[in-house]
Amino acid sequence: MAAALAGFRRAYPAFDTTAALDELRATEYARLDALGQTYLDYTGGGLYAVSQLREHQAMLAGAVLGNPHSENLPSREMTERIEATRARILEFFRASPDEYAVIFTPNATGALRLVGEAYPFGPGDQYLLTFDNHNSVNGIREFARAKGARISYIAVTPPDMRVPRDPLARVLTHAAPNGHRLVGRLAEGLRGGRRGGHNLFAYPAQSNFSGVQHPLEWIAQAQAAGWDVLLDAAAFVPTNQLDLSVWHPDYVSLSFYKIFGYPTGIGALLVRHPALAKLRRPWYAGGNITFSSVQASEAPGAGFYRTPGAAGFEDGTLDYLGIPAIGIGLDHISAIGMDTIHTRVMCLAGWLLTALSELRHSNGTPLVRLYGPAETQLRGATVTVNFADPTGTLIDSRLVEQHANAVGISLRSGCHCNPGAREVALGFTEADMKASFRHKEHLSYEEFLHVIDGKTTGAARASMGLASTFADVYRFWEFAASLRDVARADLGQIGG
Fold it and tell me: Most buried residue, 72, 118, 316, 495, by CB count within 10 Å?
């Protein structure tokens, strides 16, 4: 490894500017090495620093904090802390409070659901999204369809998994029997918006499957064409600066644990004030109303008065003791510097992309099939691959994960909640997927699993974060190299 590290440093001299993170790895994240863990699932969840826990515990131990839905002194103090945390979040993302509000949600999925259920879709309106999206973004189509809106998908193409940018690229537009529309380029999708209607365009700043980063320039392009923009930033913000003084999406979804590990169970929707005013929630609940009545509730929408602003979208009692830990986590990241984190993980990703792509079986067959860009331009530090045996047969990613677990390497296998990217990357056709769901209403869960057997193939994902070191990615490369000349049948069975 010493020789490999020396070569790495020559190829990526900027890595040495991130040496402070090696010190943090030895102190704040010492448990990784103490437990012999090689953690490469930062896109799944970030890791917390020990100092975050200490500071939060000290805050809790030194204060009396009450439910913020009251006016007693402990409740007032808690309300002040919550509002201070909202302000800290806006500061971190360089968002003006005159433009953006912060709505606390259970996670990024909760933020996406809020938009889906409250966005004012109507007959003829449009929901446009990329093939490359998290399930929680795909799921918004069910709200859109129920309200009579049309749904269109923008294709992505392998192996880079990008939306085609060539203006001469073959147009893929067609209307599917289910009413979905597939378009080959962003501009074509945007032209399909309903003039004067409610049009919502959703895409990830960074793919949780392939690591590809879709252009933030799309935001203004879509808005100029009459679209509201929902940016899924959950996979982007842990290692990239999202500057909302430069980019102005209408809705931004994120989870804080993906950035700094602790606390879990708290996310946010960052929303522009005009976009917030468009949302119409289909219900009300404790925590988001000022006053309600049973006797005055004879008509829809009667008998209650919703709290204005962000609080009108926060259901029940917030995790008010956990929310101050968000400010602690953001301070931790700010002290390190997002530029430092980004530089480190992209150096590591660049080396790993090259090293994996060079692996060959003795017969010359590539050992690795990479999904996403092979270089570091316009991508994040997520490296997603499948391994092939000497015959070129893909090895089930779940089996790879199982063998990685045995040597203390934490990867993630499957489609990573991104079915569109998986289907494109692995070449599953529309006919393949429709057949899987043809009789689902009449199948038991076990029968459904039998029908989809062979179509659940995913990929193995390694993702780097602020505590990653060269030793981590080198160990993964060693593990990958250990699969040279190994036949699929010799690796055993899932769970075996």
Answer: 118
